[in-house]
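Notes from the 1:1 (GR / supervisor)

We went over the backlog. Supervisor wanted to see one worked example end to end before approving the batch request, so GR pasted a single chain during the call. The sequence is below; no edits were made to it. Supervisor asked that the structure be written out right there so they could see what the output format looks like.
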Amino acid sequence: MGSHEHEHSELDETELRVRALQTILTEKGYIDPAALDAIVDTYQTRIGPRNGARVVAKAWTDPGFRDWLLRDASAAIATLGYTGRQGEHMVAVENTEQVHNMVVCTLCSCYPWPVLGLPPVWYKSAPYRSRAVRDPRGVLADFGIALPPGREIRVWDSTAEVRYLVLPQRPPGTDGMNEDQLATLVTRDSMIGTGLPRTP
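Structure output shown during the call:
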């Protein structure tokens, strides 16, 4: 089996369609491939979830910033320079021993690009969008997250007006870590609520 064939098996149907569309539009001269690559790279690697990870790490280490984030997330996040389309109206919700928060967009796929980068494919899928509301505990189990039975799960529905960022609980054993080190523990899924931060 050639490496070319193998490469194609790695792509899902959506990615294949996107690639085909890119190819056609590039050949017709509508898209500059370098410009497209730069946009994708910006959201996937340079922005990615790293902006959000920095927000979370700062909230973990700076109680004043944490309070501000929970009171006015848009303003707090803007002070770190992460603003722009799809991230104007942010609300931060905090995970605690009592409550676990999870974000979905039942109508479409509203997502805070400036802090989380590109939405994962599953976030836009119909099964996630419908089940997250009906059976959040089951969805979390599918993601490998088993919460204590007594912990309440709150599901937040993103809209064009409001996008949510989950502030995950700081993992135990991280007392000696600085902001940069803490940011490496924050995963994209932990900021959506379908995952937990890494443990050191």
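Supervisor's comment: The first helix runs from residue 3 to 9.
Batch request approved.
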